[in-house]
Amino acid sequence: xxxxxxxxxxxxxxxxxxxxxxxxxxxxxxxxxxxxxxxxxxxxxxxxxxxxxxxxxxxxxxxxxxxxxxxxxxxxxxxxxxxxxxxxxxxxxxxxxxxxxxxxxxxxxxxxxxxxxxxxxxxxxxxxxxxxxxxxxxxxxxxxxxxxxxxxxxxxxxxxxxxxxxxxxxxxxxxxxxxxxxxxxxxxxxxxxxxxxxxxxxxxxxxxxxxxxxxxxxxxxxxxxxxxxxxxxxx
Length: 235
Known about the structure:
By secondary structure, the chain is of the alpha/beta class. It has helices spanning 41-49, 71-76, 94-101, 108-121, 123-127, 138-150, 168-183, 195-201, 219-223, 226-232, and strands at residues 3-12, 15-25, 30-34, 56-61, 64-65, 79-82, 156-160, 187-191, 204-209, 212-218. The chain is globular. The mean pLDDT is 96.
């Protein structure tokens, strides 16, 4: 088991946003976490990335406890987050943003090779390598956020709402790319409000409601589940 989350509780002050969830991932899986606004999905990712420390429970990566590690230490252990809202450095160029994704690495030649790989994966970024990131379109900024996370050479990629605010054609491009990244063997945990798209590209899925996991299983089965269809798929 690559990632194991057990009885995780995460709060903001007196508000308990995540209430005792269990979650597991194997290497190479694409798993999605779906649910309504305020269900605790982003809070879960922030806890996995070390941006929030849990009040209870444990997180282990490759059987190593990482529950109390700081976020930069988790990057060293192979976790990278493309955050909700993209979080790009708006005043820096595309290239500078990408290089910051590799800030913990000292293998400079390999970093340059990875830059070229990111440009191959996202040709739009190659065309805009010197452009100031804040002037990119929303879809291009999302591409940059994902590419920047990949520059750390993670073993686990966390994607938080990659389709948010994007035009439908750009959403399709982003999801096609996510599928391609997963096909290369990357382990991905995807948080996404577009439940149908998320379930279509994932192998397994978790449904989160009010800070708890209420359903889990094979993504295709959840896609066909009447309860999921009624609540999240407009069915």
